[in-house]
Amino acid sequence: MLRVTAPLSWREGFALYRRRLTEDSMGEPSVHYDMERPDFVAEKGTKEGICWQSVQSWQSSGRLTSGSRLRPLGETSSGVLEGRIFSDLELAPFDRLMIRGELYEIGNIQHWPGHRKILAQRIG
């Protein structure tokens, strides 16, 4: 089986904010993200970086689309990102990523030999 690879120069940096369960004032479970201090920061061009690509597998309104648009400076996403990560960094659905100044939430992680595929939805 062939393994997917990507050069380090294609891998983008991000800040990871893990989802934590806490209790609110009534003692009910509540979700918390410490947006002041990221749990992990990956620099651009490092092995922990994520190689973002055009979305190929996210269903949106019955169509297979990323909502990407071509702009004079390249392609820009309008809400959904699909990427590949090649490191062993622990990621989970509902963790949040700050990418290029925008906040995304991980929706799905698929495990493949040599990498994981991540689908993230912009929430910020």
Topology, pairings included?
Layout: E1 14-17, E2 20-23, E3 29-32, E4 40-42, E5 50-53, E6 59-60, E7 63-64, E8 69-71, E9 74-76, E10 80-85, E11 96-99, E12 102-112, E13 115-122
Antiparallel strand pairs: 1-4, 1-11, 2-3, 5-10, 6-7, 8-9, 10-13, 11-12, 12-13
Helix- and strand-based class? mainly beta
Question: On the 0-100 scale, what is the average pLDDT?
Answer: 83
Strand order of the largest sheet: 4-1-11-12-13-10-5
Order of helices and strands: EEEEEEEEEEEEE
Taken from the alpha-carbon principal axes, the silhouette is: elongated
Number of strands: 13
Helix proportion: under 10%
Low-confidence stretches: 58-65
Number of helices: 0
What does this structure look like?
It is a single chain. With 124 residues, the protein is an all-beta fold. The protein is built from no helices and 13 strands. It has strands at residues 14-17, 20-23, 29-32, 40-42, 50-53, 59-60, 63-64, 69-71, 74-76, 80-85, 96-99, 102-112, 115-122. It has a 7-stranded antiparallel beta sheet, with no helix packed on it. A two-stranded antiparallel ribbon has the order 2-3. It is elongated.
